[in-house]
Specification:
278 residues
């Protein structure tokens, strides 16, 4: 699919459209880009028009050197939807993308039909400041420059469930579910990575995040997907989201880590499709 660029909220946003039907907007996580949904797009696009895009500071979208806020990210989504003449859409957010999506739906509830939040937070846990996150990300970025393969496996220890990770180590060329391979993921992470300044600008947005006290205002039908062994966003934090959002459905992906959208792609996709189609 051909990448295109939208003038939205004062920046250029790189996006792709896959499939036809009712629009579904995908919002990716921290330090990632639109291709992070590589295990969802081929399946969901059979039933829906999928819009995936690079957040500001990521991929091929503009990377203005200013501290980002959650409101900026929310306005970027609105700007992209306006550019594409999409009045309303289903929205799916993964990790930081789910956090951004909470801010978007609270500011522009009329632009969202159904909501899917995957491995996301409503507030930064106490004692976990942006500095810790920045330092961790910068170390990972430096390792990526020196040794992309080692950098991938270092991140995989946090992102993937141990049993699945061993299968990945044994079969780096294997096309899991016919959708992705370890070799493909390593190439993906090497392509248009964030800069140290991008990481700092992105991390600042976490200091502007705290939707927890307003989640009861979310009236939309919401699917909350968590992973049983997520080390970054524990199931307990996702359960808090479920308790606060009135019309929410809570599903646990068993024996999966933070990257559950890849390691348990068939199960995740089936749950999302059933939710959106209903």
């Amino acid at each position: 699919m051909v990448e295109k660029f939208a003038d939205a909220n004062g920046i250029k946003i790189c996006y792709e459209i896959h499939g036809k039907g009712y629009p579904v907007v995908l919002i990716h996580g921290f330090g990632s880009k639109k291709e992070s949904f590589m295990a969802q797009i081929p399946i969901l696009s059979h039933k829906f028009k999928i819009i995936s895009f690079d957040n500001r500071g990521a991929g091929k979208s503009d990377r203005p050197d200013i501290p980002y806020t959650m409101e900026m990210f929310a306005d970027d989504i609105r700007g992209l939807m306006d550019f594409l003449n999409i009045e309303k859409a289903h929205c799916i957010g993964f990790s930081l993308g789910g956090t951004i999506l909470q801010n978007f739906v609270l500011k522009y509830p009329e632009r969202v039909n159904n909501l899917v939040l995957i491995n996301s937070i409503s507030k930064v846990p106490e004692g976990y400041g942006p500095e810790m996150f920045i330092n961790s990300q910068l170390k990972g970025l430096e390792l990526l420059k020196q040794d992309p393969v080692s950098a991938f496996w270092h991140g995989a220890k946090i992102g993937f469930y141990i049993k699945f990770r061993k299968e990945m180590e044994a079969n780096p060329k294997k096309k899991f579910y016919g959708l992705w391979s370890v070799e493909g993921l390593i190439k993906y992470y090497k392509t248009t990575p964030p800069t140290p300044q991008d990481i700092k600008n992105l991390a600042y947005s976490l200091t502007t995040q705290n939707t927890f006290k307003r989640l009861k205002e979310v009236e939309l039908k919401t699917l909350i997907l968590t992973a049983s062994h997520d080390k970054l966003v524990p199931k307990s934090l996702m359960l808090e989201l479920h308790r606060e959002i009135p019309n929410s459905i809570f599903k646990v992906i068993d024996k999966a880590g933070h990257e559950s959208i890849k390691e348990k792609a068939p199960e995740v996709n089936k749950i999302i499709l059933k939710f959106l189609e209903n």
